[in-house]
C-alpha cells in the first residue's frame, strides 16, 4: 500500500497543494521544512495541541480521529501520500481539532505555520489548493454522516475496506490493519466488525492473515457498500 512521491530533488511536485508553484518556490518550501519520521502506532499530534505545523506525507498512512469523553475513538479519515494534514489549524491558528496516528511507518515533512503563511502571502493561489483540500474534508465528513444513516454496519465495513484499498487495480490488495482499528473507522464494535469480516471471508471476498486483511474481490465489496462499479 506504500505510495511514493516523485523521485529526485522536488518531492513536493506530487503534492496538490504545492504542485502549481514554480520549482524554485517549492525548493524554498523544502528548505523551510523539517523531515520527520513516525513509527507505526506513534501519534503525530493530539487533539487540542497547538496547530503549529503543516505535515506533508511522503510515505505511509495516518489515521485522523476524535476521542470521546469515555475514551472511544472515531476515525474521521485515513491520509496517504501525497496528502497533507493540519491545514485547518494553520489557517485559523486554533488548536488541533483531531488527533493523528501513524498506522504505517511514515516519512513526512513538517512546515511551520510561520513559513506556511509567508508562502501564502507570496503565492495567494495556494489558497485555491487549500480550499479544495478543505472542501474534500467537508465532503468526506458529510458522506460519513450519511453512511451512518443509510448503511448497515457490514456496508460501512465494506466501504471502509474499499477506501483503504485506494486506487489499487491489483487482483489482491493487502491492508495492514487490526480489527480494532477497522472498528473505529467503521463505527461499530470489534465483535460486530469481526462478524462482518467473517461473513465476507465466507463469501470469498477476502481473507485474514494475522493483522492483515487480503482483499480478493473489491468489486463485491463495492457493491455491498452501495458504491458504483468502476
Provide key terms for this protein:
HTH_CRP, transcription, alpha+beta, four-stranded antiparallel β-sheet, 42% helix, disordered N terminus, single chain, 23% strand, 230 residues, cAMP-activated global transcriptional regulator CRP, RmlC-like_jellyroll
The total count of helices amounts to 9
Order of helices and strands: HHEEEEEEHEEHHHEHHEEH
Number of E-state strands: 11
Structural class per helix/strand content?
A: alpha+beta
Report how far the terminal alpha carbons are from each other: 20 Å
Summarize model confidence as the mean pLDDT. 84
Task: Give a written overview of the molecule.
The protein has 230 residues and is α+β, with helices and mostly antiparallel strands. Helix content is 42%, strand content 23%. The strands form 3 sheets. Strands 1-8-3-6 form a 4-stranded antiparallel β-sheet. A 4-stranded antiparallel β-sheet has the order 2-7-4-5. A 3-stranded antiparallel β-sheet has the order 9-11-10. Strand 4 and strand 5 (73-79) form a beta hairpin. The longest helix has 25 residues, at 126-150. It is globular. The model is unreliable at 1-8 (pLDDT under 50).
Summarize the structure.
The chain is of the alpha+beta class.
Write the layout of secondary structure elements.
Elements: H1 16-19, H2 23-32, E1 34-38, E2 43-45, E3 53-59, E4 62-67, E5 73-79, E6 84-85, H3 87-92, E7 99-102, E8 106-112, H4 113-122, H5 126-150, H6 153-165, E9 173-176, H7 179-186, H8 190-202, E10 206-209, E11 212-215, H9 218-224
Helix pairs in contact: 6-7, 6-9, 7-8
Amino acid at each position: 500500500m506504500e505510495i511514493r512521491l516523485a523521485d529526485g530533488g522536488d518531492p513536493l511536485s506530487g503534492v496538490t497543494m504545492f504542485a502549481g508553484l514554480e520549482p524554485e518556490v517549492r525548493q524554498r518550501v523544502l528548505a523551510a521544512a523539517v523531515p520527520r519520521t513516525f513509527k507505526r502506532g506513534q501519534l503525530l499530534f493530539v487533539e487540542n495541541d497547538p496547530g503549529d505545523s503543516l505535515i506533508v506525507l511522503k510515505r505511509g498512512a495516518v489515521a485522523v480521529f476524535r476521542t470521546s469523553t469515555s475514551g472511544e475513538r472515531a476515525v474521521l479519515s485515513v491520509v496517504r501520500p501525497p496528502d497533507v494534514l493540519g491545514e485547518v489549524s494553520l489557517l485559523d491558528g486554533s488548536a488541533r481539532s483531531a488527533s493523528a496516528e501513524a498506522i504505517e511507518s511514515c516519512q513526512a515533512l513538517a512546515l511551520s505555520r510561520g513559513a506556511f503563511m509567508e508562502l501564502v502571502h507570496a503565492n495567494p493561489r495556494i489558497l485555491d489548493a487549500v480550499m479544495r483540500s478543505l472542501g474534500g474534508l467537508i465532503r468526506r465528513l458529510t458522506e460519513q454522516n450519511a453512511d451512518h444513516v443509510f448503511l448497515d454496519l457490514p456496508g460501512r465495513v465494506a466501504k471502509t475496506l474499499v477506501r483503504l484499498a485506494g486506487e489499487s487495480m491489483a487482483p489482491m490488495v493487502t491492508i495492514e490493519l487490526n480489527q480494532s482499528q477497522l472498528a473505529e473507522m467503521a463505527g461499530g464494535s470489534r465483535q460486530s466488525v469481526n462478524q462482518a469480516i467473517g461473513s465476507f471471508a465466507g463469501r470469498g471476498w477476502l481473507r485474514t492473515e494475522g493483522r492483515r486483511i487480503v482483499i480478493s474481490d473489491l468489486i463485491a465489496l463495492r457493491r455491498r457498500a452501495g458504491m458504483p462499479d468502476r
